[in-house]
Amino acid sequence: MITTTDKTSDGEPRGPLAGIRVLDTTGVVVGPVATLMLAEQGADVIKIEPPEGDLMRRLGGRPRKPGMSPKFLHFNRNKRSIVLDLKSDEGREVMARLVATADVFVSNMRPRALQSLGLTFAAMAAINPRIVHCTISGFAIGGPYAGVPAYDTIIQGLSGVAACHAEVLGEPRFAPFVLTDHLVGIVAAQAICAALLGRQRTGVGEAIEVPMFENAAAFVLSEHLDQRTFDPDGHMGDPRIMNPDARPLQTQDGYICVSANTDAQMRAFFDAIGRPELKDDPRFASVASRVVHVRAYFAIRAEAMRERTTAEWVEILRRHDVPAMPYHTLQSLLDDPQLRGSGVLTNEIQNNEDGQEESMLGLRHPNRYSNTGVPASRLAPRFGEHGEEILAELGFGADERRRLAGRGADAAE
Amino acid sequence: MITTTDKTSDGEPRGPLAGIRVLDTTGVVVGPVATLMLAEQGADVIKIEPPEGDLMRRLGGRPRKPGMSPKFLHFNRNKRSIVLDLKSDEGREVMARLVATADVFVSNMRPRALQSLGLTFAAMAAINPRIVHCTISGFAIGGPYAGVPAYDTIIQGLSGVAACHAEVLGEPRFAPFVLTDHLVGIVAAQAICAALLGRQRTGVGEAIEVPMFENAAAFVLSEHLDQRTFDPDGHMGDPRIMNPDARPLQTQDGYICVSANTDAQMRAFFDAIGRPELKDDPRFASVASRVVHVRAYFAIRAEAMRERTTAEWVEILRRHDVPAMPYHTLQSLLDDPQLRGSGVLTNEIQNNEDGQEESMLGLRHPNRYSNTGVPASRLAPRFGEHGEEILAELGFGADERRRLAGRGADAAE
Whole domain around residue B261: which residue ranges? Predict the structure, then answer.
């Protein structure tokens, strides 16, 4: 099993990104998802909040504690919060000090805003030539939509995510997630780490841009260009996915998910459902022919599954080496033994307004690192919770901290 | 604008991951998505295919050229292919030589298979202590489902992706993408880069595990735990997303996507639709109250959009600073000026069976790196296309290459 050897003096794992400092001026979802991954891997993520705070503190569902909405809690754990008014001289003074100490700067501001706040890559590189400056944009700079405000639903509608739902459902719908924000946030975390690796070779930082629309469209089209790849009149949309029976299949008492893609799995599946004669049916004989006859293939699956209970089918299919698992509702998912056993879903303690401890359900980093490990998890920060601490680390004395407090840099406590 | 200064001798950008070598034994989607990101950032990704080839060569839609399905082409560009029978002595001999030269090994084999093929982290670290060994698993090792075969649809059904569709549509459905494969592939690429950064500090590689189920469940629950975060009986599912009107909105001539989350956007939106009196409606006065009254808020949006054409609304809303964009079908997306202008969607040249050049539609890396840049794009490899070349690089002479060819290591040409 996996064991951690890279530990702090108190025996805690440090994480693969220990020693990396990230300045995060983003809010809502896309940026916070990116920096969450870095924070969970041991980076010191300083969440720089404007005087009004990250919108997600209020937008992310009813909070138990003011400014601590559920979604805010789940996207901002393991980060530190400082309040900076970057429009004020005091805020810029603190920011300049932070830039000198940082490896990464992340924002989703538009170029004009970065310019007016003095947060361009050029301005930061003058202070710290090794900084990696990541801009998460709606639309790539230089294109006709550059600078147009983008939110997840707008990107879903424009990038083909909603169109794929229309292919299946007959009308455009959004995915039931903040899908493109969430997806592009992970892409940004990957691009940032790639740029940090590039820095090891070149010795200098760089500006990187991660555009939401282009990433979302590439995500959709890589799966669904299909015959349009070759033929200007070719059909788009993977028929194995845009298929009425490509869904959890109804059983006598619920739903089951079955997957039988290889020839061996196909043969085992037809044996399992008592239709061995279909093994020799030319429509299903090869992967290529099953792709052509996917509707018939999936229809036979759907019909067969209705005949028994989910538990019966899982047992029978497992015995025949056909991949199959039951379907989880959101409720039943929470009781899943694998999920609970993995430690990804855990009972955390959060202090309520009166400082009393109340338990809450929290999430943890799902991946494992045998040597560097995953650092102990900390709850999402209160608004400005670490302002004092960070100002002190930057070498601001007590008098300076008093001067700064409430004038652009605020502990907000 | 972004300019590249880190170039090869022929003036090509090298990419942030130049100099990183990745051994990729994965197939289908999750692994190839992970190594695609690394390949596009300049890593030398060696795709090690079994004698039967990556299943996606046949599963990914009707090919123009045998073994080159559309989806295979889009998930495997910029990689090199060698055919190795890892069950044969010759295959292992070549693999050992490759491991000595590599930074990263990626597989989605189960522990038993890694063991029997001698591909465990321990075995590789004995040859190369700096190797980062990434296993993309269905379910985390140590849990009750460890080793159970997992495919995207099974993970979608089990992790709550299908359940979120049930919340909106009344019945479980899959997202119209290979969503969890695609998502976890990006997560794996990020975890690999994080581990490579950790290696810079510790001096040694490590084994990392990226489990699909746990990552997909964390993705779903971070958005939808909602009140269940605090209260064992609390409601799950973000009501702003699980909402009948959270979709592209019908206009007189099509669909539009509108987003108005801040107070300023709310006020501007009510002005834009000629309902200024609603600005003072207590149900909509704050972010928090709009979250509570989201159904009413979204219903007003939906009703208003029916009154004009998409173009009229986009112009009016843009004028009022309300984020809005038209909805794209898969067809209209291909003609989008931003997407075409970005170079993400491009006309490539592919040789057909007779060696004649035919144009095809290809995708490119969407992100930008001001210093290291994005290397020139290469088409996905033919089966075993680079076998000879790679064997020669490893120092196998002509005689040895002949001995190996067709006996575990095959140029397949």
Answer: 249-326
pLDDT the model gives residue A109: 92
This prediction's pTM: 0.96
Distances (CA, A) of B163 to A170, A236, A250, A394, B393: 20, 27, 14, 47, 50
Binning pLDDT at 50, 70 and 90, where does residue B232 land? very high
Location of structure tokens 């170039």: B7
Mean pLDDT of A114-120: 96
Q: In what order do the strands lie in the sheet with B249-250?
A: B249-250, B255-258, B324-326
Q: Does B282 touch chain A (CB under 8 A)?
A: no
The set of residues, in sequence order, having a beta carbon less than 8 Å from that of A310 and lying 6+ positions away, is A251, A252, A253, A254, A255, A256, A326, A327
In contact, B6 and B371? CB cutoff 8 Å: yes
Instruction: Residue window 331-360, chain A: list those with CB within 8 Å of chain B.
Output: 331, 333-334, 336-339, 341-342, 344-345, 358, 360
The reply to whether B396 falls in a domain is yes
A214 and A255 together in one domain: no
**Closest to A16 (Cβ–Cβ): which among B198, B230, B238?**
B198
pLDDT at B336 over 50: yes
Chain A contact present for B162, CB below 8 A: yes
Where a domain ends, among B326, B357, B389? B326
pLDDT at position A1 is 46
**Considering CB atoms only, which of B162, B240, B262 is closest to A248?**
B162
The strand ranges marked E within B138-205 are none
Q: Please tell me whether residues A26 and A153 are part of one structural domain.
A: yes
- Candidates B150, B145, B146, B120; CA nearest to B133 is B120
Whichever domain contains A288, its CATH number is: 3.30.1540.10
Q: Are A379 and A362 in contact (CB under 8 A)?
A: yes
ipTM of the complex: 0.96
**Whether B186 and B142 share a structural domain:** yes
pLDDT at position B413: 52
Backbone φ, ψ for residue B388 (5° rounding): -55, -50
**Shortest distance, CA A117 to any CA of chain B (angstroms):** 18
> Residue A353: pLDDT band by 50, 70, 90 thresholds?
low
**Claim to verify: residue A44 and residue A100 sit in the same structural domain:** yes
Q: Which residue of B has its CA nearest to A15?
A: B198
Best residue of B262, B269, B338 to probe chain A, by most A CBs closer than 10 Å: B338
Question: What are the pLDDT digits (tens) for B145-154?
Answer: 998 989 999 9
CA distances from A118 to A136, B49, B95 (A): 17, 50, 51
Q: Are strands A409-410 and A79-84 parallel, antiparallel or unpaired?
A: antiparallel
Tell me, what's the pLDDT at A404?
86
The whole-angstrom separation of Cα B104 and Cα B90 is 21
The pLDDT, as a whole number, for residue A245 is: 82
* Distance, CA of A360 to CA of A380 (rounded, Å): 12
State the pLDDT confidence band at B402, using cuts at 50, 70 and 90: confident
List the one residue out of A41, A364, A246, A368 whose CA is nearest residue B146: A368
Q: Are residues B209 and B254 in the same domain?
A: no
Q: In 3D, which of B219, B398, B332 has the Cα closest to residue A186?
A: B219
Q: In one letter, which amino acid is B291?
A: V
Please, are residues B313 and B324 in contact by the beta-carbon 8 Å criterion?
Answer: yes
In a domain, A193, yes or no: yes
The pLDDT assigned to A261 comes to 87
B390–chain A nearest CA distance, Å: 24
Look up tokens 């998409």; give the residue.
B310
Number of domains in chain B: 2
Neighbours of A18 (CB within 10 A): 20
Give the pLDDT score at A8: 86
What are the b/e assignments for B108-120, b being 16+ CB within 10 Å?
Answer: bbbeeebeebebb
Closest CA to A287 of B56, B33, B72: B56
- Token couple for A179: 């899908």
